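Budget justification aside, the reviewers requested a transparent look at the raw inputs and outputs of the sequence design task funded under Objective 1. We therefore reproduce one unedited record. The lines immediately below are the structure tokens for a 292-residue chain.
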């Protein structure tokens, strides 16, 4: 097993589940409720018989009582396609411990849960653009291959969250759950990110990788700030007033992302890169279950 994903980690996540209240029509047999109403096991509803319907699905006891033909409809369990957009831009590998470690561990959690439920899981890493992905596949046998794939990922250029979202939207993937794991620090601003997210017709799970220094940087005095991706430098004088304006800007950034998630009914989790990922998984999987 790759060093990032210990045997203990894999055992701990093996009991987690995703429960989708409904999944799109079509797809393969799996464990989620579908909008397909056919010949499954769980009764859902009746509808009137129309010529051409399967006569074997007529409820004859209801016919004897009402004199009308009705079909019994059942839910057919189906898979929930899971698409993981994973930020592996240069800045995600910059600090110690790097945000990329927490991000890849959480990607491993989500992928493992999907594969254990026989859902199709695709992993789409990105930096300046999408890098060669692990395309959607299903089956528990994928777990080791998928975690090894995540382990081998390297930094992929400057951050372009907006481009990655647009690429995902353009793929016209079957409707499912998109898990976007990033610090969301796109140079174009959080408004550009949320605008791009509106183009996705999927359900959304937004995992924001943070650290304490984001909200409370321990800097003061005369400093030269250097962008870890572009190399651009800026000389600044850090005073209490400057730190206060920075804190206001960071709160606004977070509020805009939270507000978007609320309007879209998306799940939003702040993942602390400096804390063990498993200790935070319970915030997302309550009693081991994530309901989407």
């Amino acid at each position: 097993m790759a060093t990032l994903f210990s045997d203990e980690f894999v055992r701990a996540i093996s009991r987690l589940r995703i429960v989708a209240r409904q999944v799109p029509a079509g797809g393969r047999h799996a464990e989620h409720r579908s909008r397909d109403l056919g010949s499954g096991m769980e009764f859902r509803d009746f509808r009137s018989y129309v010529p051409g319907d399967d006569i074997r699905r007529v409820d004859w006891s209801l016919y004897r009582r009402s004199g009308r033909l009705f079909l019994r409809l059942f839910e057919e369990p189906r898979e929930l396609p899971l698409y993981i957009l994973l930020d592996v831009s240069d800045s995600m590998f910059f600090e110690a411990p790097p945000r990329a470690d927490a991000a890849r561990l959480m990607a491993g959690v989500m992928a493992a849960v999907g594969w254990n439920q026989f859902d199709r899981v695709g992993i789409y890493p990105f930096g300046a653009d999408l890098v060669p992905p692990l395309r959607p596949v299903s089956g528990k046998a994928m777990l080791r291959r998928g975690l090894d794939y995540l382990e081998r990922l390297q930094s992929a250029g400057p951050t372009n969250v907006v481009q990655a979202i647009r690429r995902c939207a353009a793929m016209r993937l079957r409707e499912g759950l998109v898990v976007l794991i990033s610090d969301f620090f796109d140079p174009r601003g959080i408004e550009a990110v949320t605008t791009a997210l509106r183009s996705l017709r999927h359900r959304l799970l937004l995992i924001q990788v943070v650290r304490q220094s984001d909200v409370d940087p321990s800097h003061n005095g005369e400093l030269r700030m250097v962008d870890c991706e572009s190399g651009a430098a800026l000389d600044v004088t850090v005073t209490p007033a400057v730190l206060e304006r920075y804190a206001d800007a960071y709160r606004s950034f977070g509020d805009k992302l939270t507000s978007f998630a609320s309007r879209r009914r998306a799940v939003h989790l702040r993942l602390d890169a400096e804390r063990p990922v498993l200790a935070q998984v319970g915030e997302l999987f309550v009693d081991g279950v994530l309901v989407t």
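The longest strand covers residues 203-210. Residues 7-20+81-291 form a domain with the Rossmann fold fold (CATH 3.40.50.410). Computational costs for records of this kind are itemized in the attached budget.
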